[in-house]
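For reference, the entry.
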Amino acid sequence: MVIREIGLLLYGMPIFYQPYNKASSEQSSVVTRSAFISSILGFAEKLISPVDYFESEKYVFVFQKDFILSKRTKEKEMLIAYTVLDKEKKVEKSIKNRILPVLQEVLKRFISLYNGRDLNETTQFLSFKKELDAILGTDTKSLDEKVSSMLFGK
């Protein structure tokens, strides 16, 4: 399963975004994709019920939600972790067993690091990429990177 990108949305706006494939950044802007994801997710949940993922012809969009406290308000705000994957056959089992737990861990670590901070200052989240890489392990490394880390420990 190829991970195209992982991101975090607050009020439908991207506060953290990490592409893992050059093609995903070329197709549309992260702001446009974030707005699309937020609107489709909101629409589906109002009409149907909570949604964990939805599929398009080429991709699968997977979501996990939690709440975070921002410095600007005393109430917790909804934080959405999402990932975009290449569509494969029988994707549901992988989503439940692998992807949703990973997104839950991403939310857990992000909230533990940034709860109570000013979430409008997104430059503070740049260092979160290291946390994300630790959570994902080798899932987002290329074959060359995997071999290099096995041989040279890098």
Q: What stands out?
A: The helical segments are 22-27, 30-47, 91-114, 128-136, 143-152.
